[in-house]
Automatic annotation (TrEMBL):
Full protein name: ABC transporter permease
Domain ABC transmembrane type-1: 73-276
Membrane topology: Multi-pass membrane protein
Protein's UniProt keywords contain Ribonucleoprotein: no
Xref: InterPro entries: MetI-like, MetI-like_sf
Subcellular localization, as worded in the UniProt entry: Cell inner membrane; Cell membrane
Taxonomic classification: Bacteria, Pseudomonadati, Pseudomonadota, Gammaproteobacteria, Enterobacterales
Record has Transcription regulation as a keyword: no
Pfam families cross-referenced by the UniProt entry: BPD_transp_1
Length: 287
């Protein structure tokens, strides 16, 4: 028997284990995960345990005991929740309309609605300044009509507009695709039984869109929690976590508190993603 026949026979006698094959296939992803997330995050946790430069307590204790850090956290969470809810409401309406209607220019309209996907956060912030800044369109109109200059760009209201503008295109793309997959026969059956449009929307359309709404809402919340470019463009005095973290490690070299705030912000975003996943799994189990 030749050497080639011997090797072929040994391979047939000792088949490769599927588990080891999948382990080798996932090894690059595991290495990437450890190098670019696990190790940096572990280092971030460690730095947060060090003493703050001003309070001489750990960064985590400083964050939960200092009112201005808690205010920054509260502003960020409430702002992200508001952006998420308004985004889902608008995107669901637009998504259902575009999925059900066929008209000339539909593709162009969808392309225009999703065009802001090409803009980074800094550009979005600049657009908000052009709309609601001191020399923006809103200020010019209010000055002409009321002799008073209205500005929203450098406040949480302006940040809300920027985050909404940034989040809507992503939500619309997802919800248009989800709306196209809805079973229209369920709506026809409900309508034939005398259900109003409101009952059809609440009892048929919303449950059908629930997985997409949950996943889109979680991503929108997580993105709004950590969005920096838009907030930085609109002003560094806004009390939101990304700017607070930036100020701590650039202006004061307070790495412990910056790390603790980063861990706290990441934890809230992670909880939102996990909650959306659990709710989606519960929905699938019920169906």
């Amino acid at each position: 028997m030749s050497m080639a026949d011997t090797l072929a026979a040994s391979r047939r006698q000792t088949p490769t284990q599927p588990g080891s094959r999948w382990l080798w296939l996932t090894l690059p992803a595991l290495l990437f995960f450890c190098a670019f997330w696990l190790l940096p995050f572990a280092r971030l946790l460690q730095i947060g345990m060090q003493n703050d430069r001003s309070t001489q307590h750990s960064g985590y204790w400083t964050v939960i005991t200092q009112p201005h850090y808690l205010l920054s956290l509260l502003n960020t969470v409430l702002l992200s929740l508001a952006v998420t809810l308004v985004t889902l409401l608008i995107a669901a309406i637009v998504g259902c309309f575009l999925a059900r209607q066929r008209f000339a220019g539909r593709g162009t309209l969808l392309a225009l609605l999703t065009f802001p996907l090409a803009f980074p956060g800094v550009v979005v912030g600049f657009l908000v300044v052009m709309l609601a800044g001191r020399q923006g369109l809103l200020a010019q109109i209010s000055m002409s009509l009321l002799h008073e200059r209205w500005t929203l760009a450098y406040s949480l209201a302006g940040l809300f507009i920027g985050y909404l503008y940034f989040s809507l295109p992503r939500a619309i793309v997802t919800l248009v695709a989800a709306s196209e997959k809805l079973d229209r026969s369920l709506e026809e059956a409900a309508r034939s039984l005398g259900a109003s449009q409101w009952r059809i929307t609440w009892d048929v359309i919303v449950p059908g869109l629930q997985p997409a709404l949950l996943s889109t809402g979680a991503l929108c919340f997580a993105t709004s929690m950590g969005a920096f470019g838009t907030a930085f463009t609109l002003g560094t005095d806004l009390a939101v976590l990304p700017l607070t973290i930036y100020g701590e490690f650039t202006n004061y070299a307070n790495f412990a508190t910056a790390a603790a705030l980063s861990v706290l912000m990441g934890g809230f975003a992670w909880l939102a993603l996990m909650l959306a996943r659990r709710l989606a799994q519960a929905k699938e189990a019920q169906s």
